[in-house]
Amino acid sequence: MADEIAPRYAPSHWLIDKAILPTMAWVAIALSAFQIYQAVTMDIGTTFFRPIHLGWILVLVFLKFPALKNPNAPLYLPFRLLDATLCAAIIAATYAVLVFDYTGINHLLYGLNQPDYWAGALLLFATLEATRRSVGWEMALIGVIFVAYAMFGNVLPDAIATQGFSLERLVRFQLFTSEGVYGAPLGIAATAVFMFVLFGAFLESTGAGKFFIDLSYAAAGKYRGGPAKACVLASAGMGSISGSAIANAVAVGALTIPMMKKLGYKPEQAAGIEASASTGGQIMPPVMGAGAFIMAEFTNTPYRDIVLISIVPAILYFTSVLLYVHLMACKLGLKGVEERPKVRDILAYGFHFVLPLLLITGLLMLNYPPTLVGVIGTVAILIACMLRKHTRINMAQFWHGMKSGALMMLPISAACATAGIVVGVIGQTGLGIQFTDFVLSLSNGNLFIALILIAFAALILGMGLPVTAAYIILAVMAAPALESMGVYLLTAHMVIFWLSQISNISPPVALAAFAAAGVANAKPQRSAVEALKLSNAFFILPVMMIYSDVLFHDHISISAFALGTAVSACIVFSLAYALEGFAFVRTLRAERFVFFAAVPLLLYKTLETSLLGMALFAAAAGYNYWRAHNVQRVVL
User: Fold this and answer.
1) Which of 285, 465, 536, 635 makes an SS bond possible with 307, Cβ 3.0 to 4.6 Å?
2) What is the CA radius of gyration of the chain?
């Protein structure tokens, strides 16, 4: 091993990494063990647990992501030693936060003493720097901008001005209360999100993830565009658990994209399909990534209720993606795959991997705490893989899962800590109220215009922020504006949660599409355009959540929900048939016009227009079906 590494490193550089990398691995394993212990016992209170979690995360970030990435750079060794020094300083600063006297009033009357002040300032800087290294400079820059706004807002124009706060007051609010860095975003990341990320890491290390991908391929492979449909099904399941559209696009795409290209899909189409399916995994129950746990906290809603109201919109979204995939296959004349594994063979090999997923789904529906469910799921997947000889793992694989789970959390926890800074500044300065007033005045009270403004803000934020961070910031700033216009609280958050996903598939910075394009060796922007077309339901369904009662909650009747679901389904099919120019057979211009014309009627929330739109859709689809079976036979 040394002979393989030495030629790429200066000797002294190689020696320090030889010491740091094993240390990082064991620190990561210890973090996972600590998180499991806390989830089971709940021995450590929030005031202490969140600082410990973030301190651990920061140390791991500085060990894993060096300031200089090139190990042959002349200053690599000094900077690596500086990282090690920062790790020691972070541990000392975290200790200062842990022993701080929160019950005293001296810090409120006279400010922080010098040791606490410098400890807090160091942690604030370390959080932003760790975010820059693990997430990207865009997220860190947003954190810096909000810190600057809190400190120098008094010199800005009156429309956006705020009281300027000293650095001491900012540090005191951000690090020595539960409203800033250690606020709700980090709290959710450190509990439920961590345990489900660890669960996802063990799915990968035990081979359960590959089992579900193979099962999807075996089930859908025989149909037109089978590999593409398998990609959609696999991404729906794996994306929900992995919590990252980009990671899902790369992991699942590495298996499905080559199959799609081999079948006849263009590289850009294959990348677009994978990106749209992977992004949809974030809104697919039962796990729905990290954002849904935060939504439950923000809205004070049981997680079970979040899952239940999300089922129908998620099914409609994946129905839309599958429909586009099918229509593409019809237009290209693609067939199913003849040589593929059989479903019964795949199930015979790994049916026991289904049991942990059924278990966590049932526990979530029974309203068990998500953190505990994540622990049980992790233990269940380990027990399941040990039940049969051919899936048993060894200790090396176990340690790999423990390490991977902790390392996968680094960008999530760092992003949530920086999002906490932003949320803290919004609360400290009153910026959220100003943003609400801005949206209300600019939209002139028009809800549809307000939705467009919020969608645009989501797209801009999403260009540099992870989905979870974008949702947190938008929820704090935009949800009050929607509520003031009469939108139900949970509906407002669900709309914002969906809109926060669009940066993964919307040009010019479509992160999941670009990741999939790299796997497919496709042109990034063309892949993004394909993903945007396939994922148009991300724009349509949030509108329907407000205008057509497609979210079933206490304020919606069963009849209104049924009508809203039917109308939303008609919009999904109408748009797909119109955009692709294909239904059961290639559409005529008149049919295509009718499909397009039905959409605004369906969007307009009155019973008469909804029924008229559904009638137009049924007439055009029925005529196209008649032509397909009486003029030109098309095998579906």
Assistant:
1) 285
2) 26
Cα 100 from Cα 172, distance rounded (Å): 11
Of the candidates 425, 476, 475, the one whose C-alpha atom is nearest the C-alpha of residue 128 is 425
* Buried/exposed 104-141: b ≥16 CB within 10 Å, e otherwise: eeebeeeebeeebbebbbbbbebbbbbbbbbbbebbbe
**582: three-class secondary structure by DSSP:** strand
Strand partners, 145: none
Is 368:337 a contact under the CB 8 Å cutoff? no
Token pair of 517 as six digits: 């394009």
Q: Which of 3, 137, 16 is nearest to 76 (CA)?
A: 16
Q: What is the pLDDT of residues 110-129, one digit of tens each?
A: 888 999 999 999 999 999 99
Euclidean distance between CA atoms 407 and 553, whole angstroms: 37
Q: Decide if 504 contacts 279 (C-beta within 8 A).
A: yes
pLDDT in tens, 395-417: 999 999 999 999 989 988 998 89
How many Cβ atoms sit within 10 Å of the Cβ of residue 562?
12
Instruction: Encode pLDDT of 513-523 as tens digits.
Output: 888 888 888 88
DSSP state for residue 7 in the 8-state scheme? G
Identify the top-confidence range among 12-21, 418-427, 509-518: 418-427
What residues contact residue 14 under an 8 Å CB cut-off, 6+ apart?
2, 5, 6, 71
Q: Among 314-318, 459-463, 546-550, which range has the highest average pLDDT? A: 314-318
In the 3-class helix/strand/coil scheme, how is 294-362 assigned residue by residue? HHHHHHCCCHHHHHHHHHHHHHHHHHHHHHHHHHHHHHHCCCCCCCCCCHHHHHHHHHHHHHHHHHHHH
**Rounded Cα–Cα distance for residues 255 and 331 (Å):** 24
Give the separation between CA 63 and CA 124, rounded to whole angstroms.
18
Amino acid code (one letter) for 12: S
Q: Are 500 and 459 in contact (CB under 8 A)?
A: no
List C-alpha distances in Å: 306 to 124, 238, 301, 554, 607. 33, 19, 7, 12, 27
- Which residues partner with 586 through β-bridges? 582
Tokens of 130: 């760790």
Nearest to 355 by CA among 531, 527, 203, 172: 203
